[in-house]
Amino acid sequence: MKVWISSKEKKPMGLDQSPNARHSLQSRIPKNCHHWTLTRSEFPAVASSSKTAVNRRPNPRRPPTAYCCREISRLAPPNSPPDPASLVVAIPDSQTRPGARTLEEIQKKVTMGLVDSSGDLSGEMEVDAFRRLFPLRYYERHLAESIRPDGRTLGMARDTTLALGAVSSADGSALTKIGSTTMLAAIKMEVMTPSAESPDEGCIAIEFHMPPICSPIVRPGRPAEAAVVESKRLSDTILRYGRMESLDVQPRTIWLVFCSSGMINLKELALVSGKAAWMAYLDIYCLDADGALFDAALLSAVAAFSHLQIPVVSLNDKGKIVAFTEEGDTVGKLEKEAVNKEKRKLTLGNIPFSLTCALHKKHILADPSSEEESIMETLVTVVMDSSDRLVSFYKPGGALAYTSLVTDCVRLTRQRMKELEKILDEAFSGMEVD
Amino acid sequence: METDRKDGRTPNQLRPLKCSRNILHRAHGSASWSQGETKVLAAVYGPKAGTKKNEDPEKACIEVIWKPKTGQIGKAEKECEMIMKKTIQSICLLTINPNTTTSVIVQVVNDDGALLPCAINAACAALVDAGIPLKHLAVAICCCVAEEGSVVLDPTNVIEFVFGQQMRGFAYLVFPNSALSALPEGSYLVNGEPLEHGIITSVTHGVMSVDEYLKCVDRGRAACAKLSGFLRNSLQKSQFPSDTSSKAA
């Protein structure tokens, strides 16, 4: 394609060095780009708000003050570079968190450090931008003071809450929150015929779902890889722990049979030997994925099983199990009803509790958030039960772990187990009052 | 000492090991590893250009595909893939070839116990055969805990009875291989412990006490030292296909 250039415009625009062209180039830059030169009259909207904000020059030695986002957009003129003196510092609950003052000092040091450090960073970077661009360095500055950006110490887990009976249509349900990570567990019971190898045992099917609501990485249609793995690990911990059957897919002989002191005794789910048994479907939905998914999922599963009320059933004339009705028009064997009326709740054996830790050089961070998990490559999950036995020490790859690290993680898990047992007891005592 | 193990091994004895390199000619690297009856074949293709979605383009990406002997791919296979991927990522030097993908394909030929450690060993030998840059090798072992707390190495699939006790739990452990160097011992210590004492990967099933787990780790380290000697010998053999198989009892 030919471009006709007139004799006047032989050179492309913008690269002309003649004085006329330079002036035209400069005139294209809006005047308010340099906030050094603006005056109050040029910004009528801003002039009406606080005087000090507009006239303030960025002063790196000034301590950062906390403003909310909306205030900043109102006070600062548009198109100006960010003013580091008025940066946003979000400290949740800063008055009650331990080390709140240390946190502010660290944030101060981060901005000051930017000014003093080598010339690869411009001195006017906000803390937020530094956190996004250099997450590892941001975290290391905090770890040097043994504190984390959200104000927790290294061994502290996030606030945990538990709500039982969240789903009224399910036979047992629980909603768990560890920090922002939210899990909803629900159990539905169905009657089925037990297999020939174990006529006195019921069955539990555990499924872990990660719907797209939980994380920006998960898209609809394709199940997240993490969901499949967590599902398997949960069923391993709750079911195979304490009892190992012949493994799925391939028909193998039962190869290792462990002592059956697991959490759930499948024999409790039997109804009529060889003919009817309970099948429990446990579905766990991740509503918000913010790190430590396995911990929250295991806690919600345990709570749902504790909350479970097995529906009452009776045997009708044809030998089929039907739901028990109060009127008594279905002819039911009295023995059957009596048996089922007593066993409405599952007796749980040793309950497993877990703690995920992130490892970074010599620091162990308990209960990492998703930001910490993405930066630190090494994660360890320790599951222990209430009789102080190790159910699982799960460390898939990552940096090398020595014996001292194993003992430290186990110690942190024991502490966490005490906290979780208290939370579980409180939730149940609250429920029984109702 | 009286042993009740079906094949007459002592609790500390491993099954006969066999490792062959360069068995598949189209793959960039391949190896087969067998421990007794368990046999796994691993092939490595790579590095290929481009990384998968959601992976960091500044590092090399490792992809593991696990093919079971029979049946469809289910959750157990996905979990094995994830564990192997993370293990291999921690031994590879990922910054040398950024924005590339290396695929490791694992085919289970026969499963008679300790399948995942066998697969990790095979994958490591295949990576060496392909010439992928590694920090150190990964050596894997399976340790079993009996009722009374004694530790048994490398169990098979059948119900194991040692001294008349049943097995209570088992652990798959992966350690780095032991270093052989001309330098004095002191230079390889990290916090007073040699490098090969660190655990790369650990997966446990069943219940055991913390002390029993630490005993497993100790026994596993000793066994892995022997395994890494065997691995070094077999990988140092010549390149010719006829000469690449080596056997160790």
What structural keywords apply?
heterodimer, A: 6-stranded mixed β-sheet, 12 helices, B: alpha+beta, 6-stranded mixed β-sheet, 24% helix, globular, exonuclease activity (chain B), hydrolase (chain B)
Helix content of chain A: 25-40%
Radius of gyration of chain A: 31 Å
Helicity range of chain B: 10-25%
Shape of chain B: globular
Q: What's the total number of strands of chain B?
A: 12
Say what oligomer this is.
heterodimer
Order of helices and strands of chain B: EEEEHEHEEEEEEHE
Q: What's the N-to-C terminus distance of chain B?
A: 20 Å
Structure classification of chain B: alpha+beta
SS-derived structural category of chain A: alpha+beta
Question: What overall geometry of chain A do the principal axes of the alpha carbons give?
Answer: elongated
Major beta sheet, strand line-up of chain B: 4-5-3-2-1-12
Q: How many strand segments of chain A?
A: 12
